[in-house]
């Protein structure tokens, strides 16, 4: 198992958690982004820069990932593609996307896009907070432990 990160919009505190996990476990963590990323020197952490463009990083993650890999993303369509390929998808707030919840999330995303397209101000997501950071760390630890037990 390795961890892929949709890094363009991933909060820095989440990246920091992943950097620590990469060396502690050890586990390969790969950040994929449209921009050049600085990552700590480690044989377990690398970054991949892809050309600019809509969904280019997402497509690269899906292309490179293997079934059983974990993808950290807030992008619901990417999470759907990851699940279809047999991977796991975790958002930065510590919630797993699953085959049971992804269809509803895609529908809600489309509905919100439609509202915004018609001029309705839907606001944005709540500010990222310490609780979100802790939820992510706990979910990640539980997932890694589970995968190691199964291996």
TrEMBL record:
<comment type="similarity">
    <text>Belongs to the UPF0178 family.</text>
</comment>
<dbReference type="InterPro" id="IPR003791">
    <property type="entry name" value="UPF0178"/>
</dbReference>
<protein>
    <recommendedName>
        <fullName>UPF0178 protein GTP81_00675</fullName>
    </recommendedName>
</protein>
<dbReference type="Pfam" id="PF02639">
    <property type="entry name" value="DUF188"/>
</dbReference>
């Amino acid at each position: 198992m390795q961890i892929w990160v949709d890094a363009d919009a991933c909060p820095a505190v989440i990246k920091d958690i992943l950097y620590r996990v990469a060396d502690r476990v050890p586990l390969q963590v790969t950040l994929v982004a449209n921009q050049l990323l600085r990552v700590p020197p480690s044989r377990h952490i690398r970054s991949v820069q892809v050309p600019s463009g809509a969904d280019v990083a997402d497509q690269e993650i899906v292309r490179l990932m293997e079934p059983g890999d974990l993808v950290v993303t807030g992008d619901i369509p990417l999470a759907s593609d990851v699940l279809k390929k047999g991977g796991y998808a975790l958002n930065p707030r510590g919630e797993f996307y699953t085959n049971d919840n992804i269809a509803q999330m895609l529908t809600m995303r489309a509905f919100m896009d439609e509202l915004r397209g018609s001029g309705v101000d839907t606001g944005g997501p709540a500010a990222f907070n310490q609780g979100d950071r802790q939820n992510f760390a706990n979910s990640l630890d539980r997932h890694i432990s589970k995968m190691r037990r199964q291996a």
